[in-house]
Amino acid sequence: MDWKHIPLSAWVGLILTVLFMICAVFAPMIAPFGNGEIVGGVWDPGSADHLLGTDNLGRDLLARMIFGARITILIAGLATALSFSLGAILGFSAAVIGGWFDTVMSRFVDLLMAIPTLIFGLVVLSVLPSTAVTLILVMGLLDSTRVYRLSRAVAADINVMDFVEAAKLRGEGKAWIIFREILPNAMSPLISELGLRFIYAVLFLSALSFLGLGVQPPDADWGGMVKENKDGIVFGIPAALIPAAAIAVLAISVNLVADWVLNRTASFKGGRG
After folding, report:
1. Model confidence pLDDT, tens digit, residues 13-72
2. Would you kindly state where each structural domain of the chain is located, as residue ranges?
3. Burial class (CB in 10 A: 0-12, 13-18, 19+), 126
4. CATH class label, 57-268
5. Cis peptide leading into residue 218 (ω within 30°)
6. Mean predicted confidence (pLDDT) in 197-206
7. Can you tell me the distance from the alpha carbon of 45 to that of 171, in angstroms, rounded to the nearest whole number?
8. Taking Cα atoms as reference points, which of 254, 139, 252, 136 lies closest to residue 191?
């Protein structure tokens, strides 16, 4: 990789994204205090001991932010991986197999997409326990419908190209067609969508936590931290704005990286000779 030709925007995105990942992976070693440890008064201002101040219960806000990064990125990342794995495989399969399988899958996805995602998630999570596994499954399954539509549309275009027809004439199976012919040539739009889907998962998780059906206390993601400290905004206390800003910065950094990776993988779209 030629590091000299990486644009400044990509460097900014890479550095910020790596910093978020380091916080997520090494949270217990980096955080100055425990996740639920009360170390001061309610909404104390920033100081040498508490750089970002304290939250609504007197817990160190910086420590909560670091532990919140771990929970936010872990759940959103696993949900995105699930949505892409499921959506892409089903979308490619529907385009290659066609017939009744394509019709049934597409109409089922249309039915799911007709229901507002947030409302659907709230209904499901009001019945099921709001554990990390439940959140990952619900978010991943709901978001896979968007990935399915994109994957099917891209695969349908690639499936009629000459190099795919040649593979079919050679007697290659459907698995070969999907993973060796279509997938490499569908990387550019999928990578571009990957960044958007990850950020959507972060925002979806934050919305669920803000409404009380996401990550449950004493743990908290950034959306839950906004909820916990929202009353302080009335008194000019920025405790709720800090995790909100972190969500925005994460969204920008991941999209900068996704745009750069998209430009690097654009050559895959030309097809296999």
Report:
1. 999 999 999 999 998 999 888 888 888 888 888 888 888 988 888 899 999 999 999 999
2. 57-268
3. exposed
4. mainly alpha
5. yes
6. 91
7. 69
8. 254
